[in-house]
Design goal:
The protein is of the alpha+beta class. The chain has a single domain, classed as Gcn5-related N-acetyltransferase (GNAT) (Aminopeptidase). It has helices at residues 13-24, 32-41, 44-53, 96-110, 125-133, and strands at 3-7, 58-63, 66-75, 79-87, 115-121, 137-146, 149-156.
């Protein structure tokens, strides 16, 4: 199966919003308040605004030309913040998450970033394993960090 990773285009906004909702809505690792907050934060108009403001901010993966994954980043004028990455349930098991994160890391280096930061729920074993595999360092535990949930803060450095 062929996976292509690239920057999102404005025309991807509707499909990105639908994919984001399909990934986040059923997540059992999020509590209801967290899920609702994220679904409200990433609509088609939000993706349009993000892509228009910074064409490097949203990265997409296509499996056999079908939108199957995404990563959302923010340039913090030094560090890059990895806000989200996700893979459609039906497309998991093809290395798409790893390809997305490898693209984010290469892109951060191209952009002259000093590091990449992200957080993950302490219960998200799949994400934790991938971050460790790619060389992210666990910085600290953030207890009761967001909507009453515990998170780990991660850093990838140097670029």
């Amino acid at each position: 199966m062929t996976v292509a990773v690239s920057y999102a285009e404005l025309a991807d906004a509707e499909a990105l919003a639908a994919l984001f909702a399909a990934i986040v809505a059923p997540l059992d690792i999020y509590n209801e308040a967290a899920r609702a907050a994220e679904l409200a934060k990433f609509t088609a108009s939000d993706f349009t605004r993000l892509i228009a403001a910074d064409p490097s901010s949203v990265i997409v993966a296509r499996l056999e030309d079908r939108l199957s994954g995404f990563a959302i980043t923010y340039d913090e004028h030094g560090p890059i913040w990895l806000e989200w990455y996700g893979v459609a349930p039906a497309a998991r098991g093809h290395g798409i998450g790893e390809q997305l994160l490898r693209f984010v890391l290469a892109d951060a280096k191209r952009r002259g970033a000093t590091r990449v930061w992200c957080d993950t729920l302490t219960s998200n074993a799949t994400s934790i394993a991938l971050l460790e595999k790619l060389g992210f360092n666990l910085l600290c535990l953030l207890p009761d960090h967001w909507h009453g949930q515990d998170y780990f803060l991660w850093e990838f450095s140097p670029l």
